[in-house]
C-alpha cells in the first residue's frame, strides 16, 4: 500500500468513527426529549365529547383562555393508576387551555399528614388557584384556610372536603366539581343484581378507606340496592383500603366463608381486578359477577377479555378540563355554580366495544 493510500484509509476510518459517535449522541438527546414530552393527544370519541358537553354546559359562560394562569393541583397519590391518568388529563387540558399547571401528590393512599404538608408547601408558591382532591374529608382543611389567607382560589375536585369544617376553621371553598359516588355504587349494584337473576344469591362489597368520601358514597349506593332487592343477601362489607393485596385476601376469605357467593362490588378497579385474580386462582371465577369503578386502562382490557364484568366510568379528560375551567372562573372573579357534576357511564362486557376510545 502506498503512503497516499495509507493516509486516505486513516482519514476514512476517522470519519467513520466520528459518524458513529454523532449517531450515539443524537440517540441520547432524542431519548431525553421523549421522556419529557407532554401526554399524547387522545383519539376523538363521540361518547367523550358528549360527556364533555354536559360538563361545559354547566360551566357557561366560559372564562378567558390562554392567559397563562398558574394553577397548582393536588391529587391523592400517583401510586394509583387512576390518579396517574387524571394527572395526564390535567396536563393535556392545561396545554389546550393555555394555563400552567403543576401536579403534586401524597406518597400513598392513606398518608393524610403528607398530603396536608404538600398542600401547605403549595400555598407558599405563586399559584393563582389550587385544585385539590383530599384523602379524607378533614385532612386538608388547614391547607384550605392557608390558601384563603394568601388569596389563592381553591377548587375541590372529586372526594369532598367537609364544608362545615372549613367554615368553622375560618375558611371557604371557591368551587366544587365531583361525581355522584352513591350513584356509582347504585348503578354497579343494579347491574350485578340483574345478572344474578330472579333466583338471587349472596353478594359482598369491598370498600376503599373507611371515611373517604368516594368509598362511603359508593358503599352506601350499592348497599341500598342489595338490601332492597328480594333474594339478594349482602353477606359482607369490608374495607380493602384501595389496596390490591388486601382486596385479594378479602376475596379469598369470602370464598372460604361463602363458596356460593355470586357477586362482588369493589369500590375501585384496582380492588376489582384483585378480586377477579383471587377467584381465578381458586378456580371459581365462572358464574360470579365482579364490578369496579373508574374504568382504568387495566380494567378496560380486563372487561374486554371477560376477566371483569364491568366498571363505572366518567371521562377523565373532560373531568380534568372542567376542573381547570372552573378554577379559571374563580381566578377571574366570575360567578360559578354551587357544584358541577360529571355524568357517568356503565361499561360492561356487552358494550365494551363502544368505549374502546374512551378517555
* Secondary structure category: alpha/beta
Number of domains: 2
Shape: globular
Distance from N terminus to C terminus (CA atoms, Å) equals: 67 Å
CATH superfamily (homologous) name of the largest domain: Response regulator
Total DSSP helices: 12
Task: Determine the strand fraction and express it as a percent band.
Answer: 15-25%
Low-confidence stretches: 1-37
Oligomerization state: single chain
Quantity of strands, as a count: 12
Mean pLDDT rating: 89
How would you describe the overall organization of this protein?
With 359 residues, the chain is an alpha/beta fold. It folds into two domains: 46-179 and 315-344, 3-Layer(aba) Sandwich (Rossmann fold); 181-313, 3-Layer(aba) Sandwich (Rossmann fold). The protein contains twelve helices and twelve strands. The strands form two sheets. Strands 2-1-3-4-5-11 form a six-stranded parallel sheet, with helices on both faces. Helix 3 (81-97) crosses helix 12. It is globular, with a radius of gyration of 25 Å.
Summarize the structure.
The chain has 359 residues and is of the alpha/beta class. It has helices at residues 3-36, 46-58, 81-97, 112-122, 141-149, 163-168, 181-196, 213-227, 244-257, 269-281, 297-305, 316-331; strands spanning 70-77, 100-106, 129-132, 153-157, 175-178, 201-207, 232-239, 263-266, 289-293, 310-313, 340-341, 345-348. The longest helix has 34 residues, at 3-36.
Question: What keywords describe this structure?
Answer:
alpha/beta, Rossmann fold, 2 domains, 6-stranded parallel β-sheet, 6-stranded mixed β-sheet, 17% strand, globular, disordered N terminus
